[in-house]
Design goal:
The strands form 2 sheets. The chain has a 6-stranded antiparallel β-sheet, with no helix packed on it. A 3-stranded antiparallel β-sheet has the order 6-5-8, with no helix packed on it. It contains 5 helices and 9 strands; from the N terminus they run αααααβββββββββ. The protein is of the alpha+beta class.
Length: 175
């Protein structure tokens, strides 16, 4: 864990000198230098003092690099197209067991036969008119409508409108 490097980066970004940090925290220059060079591990109380001075939440200092915020630019998104129906899936974000996708259904396009997989799904219809079916349930949904289901029960979504339908889907599977 590179807590010291993170503290230095925050301090430098905020244009705070080591002297100012010493004055604001009551810690010595030598100690702060050792912390920032990852030569010593400060106590939780000391980390809280540093976090308060830097105006960052203590848990932020404890995050590993791969736990920080992730950004995927629009032009960097992975896109999957299913040729048989021209269904387009944009993979917006993935974190742990959570995946967020934007699915574009051309008129008449569907997810194919009812399928099932592990996890939970939540859907928001952004545009168009779709038919969502699961088990014996069948609903027509339009812009602004939401629905969710246990994905292990066979399900199916179809665009029944005359225009492209767009659905934002969050899928959660335990990792």
């Amino acid at each position: 864990m590179e807590i010291g490097s993170k503290i230095r980066a925050i301090r430098n970004r905020k244009e705070i000198t080591i002297s100012q940090m010493c004055e604001g925290t009551g810690l010595s220059k030598g100690f702060i230098s050792n912390v920032e060079n990852n030569n010593t591990s400060p106590s939780i109380n000391t980390l809280q003092t540093i976090a308060t001075f830097l105006k960052v939440p203590l848990p932020y200092l404890l995050l590993e690099k791969d736990e920080h915020m992730t950004v995927i630019r629009k032009n960097e998104r992975k896109i999957t197209t299913f040729n048989e129906s021209n269904l387009m899936v944009e993979h917006l974000a993935t974190r742990g067991g959570l995946s967020v996708r934007l699915v574009e259904f051309p008129p008449g396009a569907s997810t194919g036969e009812k399928n099932a997989h592990e996890g939970e799904e939540c859907h928001l219809v952004l545009k168009g008119k779709i038919l969502a079916e699961q088990g014996e349930d069948s609903y027509i949904l339009e812009e602004g409508d939401t629905f969710n289901w246990c994905a292990s029960v066979p399900h199916h979504v179809k665009n029944i409108g005359d225009e492209i339908a767009k659905v934002l889907i969050a899928v959660y599977t335990e990792g």
